[in-house]
Design a protein that fits this description.
- It contains 20 helices and 2 strands.
- It has helices at 3-33, 43-55, 89-94, 102-127, 134-142, 144-152, 156-172, 175-188, 193-201, 205-226, 229-240, 254-260, 264-284, 289-303, 316-320, 327-336, 340-346, 351-356, 360-374, 381-385; strands spanning 69-73, 78-82.
- A two-stranded antiparallel ribbon has the order 1-2.
């Protein structure tokens, strides 16, 4: 080995060690920052409240229960009651919570969330094998979204498993299984219908039709149990959710960004233009399945009015499926792992801070979207290893 090669090897080793150290410190900071929240129910309290109300034959989307989480907006010195806003299918899962001790239930769910998240990382390492790289694993564990769902008791870890299933099944040539997992995902989070539309527009009709049928079938189940009134109550809760929620730090939607400039309507227009442009792009460009899936996830997050930081964990298959990260991915990865506690500290200092830090994770998503659209080089493992796609 020449002296130049030796220096390069040492430089890579020092860089790798430094990155691992920074990520380890980020994980420690995140762990410390969520400690106070682990004594509270937070979002999980809203889920328990929904289950209790439904079990008593009442409106599960009411904000009157004392268990409903109250979100404090540091930017405006106001608080927002945050009842369960998940689709009616979620009520079938929340009803069993009504008989459990809330403190034990939320602790058990946080443990389950960590296990599911770890299982998601493990599955991605198996589906997208790479030479052992501790940086990717530590980065995944440092994601701000992961620590937020742990603190809040949110339900996003199962969504990650569904997203990984859709991503992998679609790439490996199992369109019906991909449609099944995507359909379940849509029934739980309807904004992911954008992913379905993108796949259908690109010609992957088996996935799109299967997902549509599964999503519709699951969405009918609550009607059979509770009646159509449940959907009326859900729509009412959605429409009555305070618009101030758009200004809460960590919301990654286009509407949230536009609301920081004083016009949420502009954000809706941007979302519509984004959807139209993406569908046009998917129809006229021969995109790989990997790129379609990546754009499907990112677009689904950006166009949803309330797209919290926890949703960003769904970007994991996008990152792990790349043989290498372009600079956009590296910068995006850094933004997505920026501790939320620091976002809360910085974003309220000025208008500029509100735009930069309040929408910090949104900027991370947009960076990847730009790369997907402008960069013609496909460095996904699907392309490099020649996976068969159905």
């Amino acid at each position: 080995m020449t002296s130049k090669q030796t220096l390069l090897t040492l430089a890579r080793t020092f860089t790798l060690t430094g990155l691992c150290a920074v990520l380890a410190l980020t994980i420690i900071l995140n762990f410390i920052s969520i400690q106070p929240a682990l004594h509270d129910l937070l979002d999980f309290g809203s889920f328990i409240a929904a289950g209790k109300e439904a079990a008593m034959g009442k409106n599960p989307y009411t904000a009157d229960s004392p268990l409903v989480y109250r979100v404090e907006s540091n930017d405006t010195d106001q608080s927002v009651l945050s009842p369960n806003l998940n689709p009616p299918l979620s009520i079938l899962f929340f009803m069993p919570l009504s008989n459990l001790d809330p403190a034990r239930a939320v602790s058990g769910w946080r443990i389950a969330t960590a296990v599911l998240f770890g299982a998601g990382i493990f599955s991605l390492l198996r589906f997208y094998p790479m030479p052992f790289n501790p940086v990717r694993i530590l980065w995944a564990l440092s994601l701000a979204g992961f620590w937020q769902i742990l603190a809040l008791g949110q339900i996003y870890a199962p969504l990650l498993i569904l997203a990984i299933g859709t991503y992998v099944f679609a790439e490996r040539g199992f369109p019906r299984l991909a449609g099944l997992t995507l359909g379940i995902l849509i029934a739980l989070k309807p904004n992911f219908v954008f992913w379905l539309l993108l796949l259908g527009t690109a010609g992957h009709m088996t996935i799109a039709i299967t997902a549509l049928l599964v999503g519709l079938a699951l969405s009918v189940l609550p009607i059979l149990t509770f009646g159509i009134e449940l959907y009326q109550q859900w729509f009412s809760a959605l429409s009555n959710y305070p618009a101030i929620g758009l200004l809460i730090a960590g919301n990654t939607s286009f509407q949230s960004l536009a609301a920081r400039f004083g016009s949420a309507l502009t954000g809706m227009i941007i979302s519509v233009l984004f959807v139209g442009g993406s569908l046009y792009f998917a129809y006229f460009r021969k995109l790989s399945m990997n790129r379609i899936n990546a754009l499907g996830i990112l677009g689904s997050l950006l166009i949803s009015p309330f797209s919290w930081v926890g949703y960003t964990i769904l970007t994991l298959p996008i990152f792990f499926s790349r043989s290498r990260w372009f600079w956009q991915y590296k910068l995006s990865a850094a933004l997505l792992s920026f501790p939320y506690v620091l976002v809360l500290f910085f974003f309220q200092k000025s208008f500029l801070h509100s735009v930069l830090f309040g929408w910090l994770y949104g900027w991370g998503l947009v960076l990847i979207v730009v790369e997907l659209i402008l960069n013609r080089e496909d460095n996904s493992l699907e392309h490099v290893m020649g996976y068969q796609t159905g």
